[in-house]
Amino acid sequence: MPQLNPAPWFLILLLSWTVLLLIFKTKILMSAPHSAPLTPDLLAHRTAPWTWPWI
């Protein structure tokens, strides 16, 4: 059984991976949120320190 020359198959594999990565990159960037997430005000939620019940 003759062996296939790997040179054209490697180029096809490389180009197909490049195209797939570009497609997935654009899909990921399009699904990213457009606005920054809201950060909670950490000073407003300040609570008393927890105390040990046996002290």
Automatic annotation (TrEMBL):
Transmembrane segments: 6-24
A cellular-component GO term for this protein: mitochondrial membrane
GO MF, one annotated term: proton transmembrane transporter activity
Primary localization: mitochondrion
Signal sequence segment: none
Single biological process term from Gene Ontology: proton motive force-driven ATP synthesis
Keyword hit for Transport: yes
Assigned keywords, A-Z: ATP synthesis, CF(0), Hydrogen ion transport, Ion transport, Membrane, Mitochondrion, Transmembrane, Transmembrane helix, Transport
Membrane topology recorded in Swiss-Prot or TrEMBL: Single-pass membrane protein
Location relative to the cell: Mitochondrion membrane
Family stated for the protein in its record: Belongs to the ATPase protein 8 family.
Protein name as annotated: ATP synthase complex subunit 8
Organism: Plestiodon liui
This protein's encoding gene: ATP8
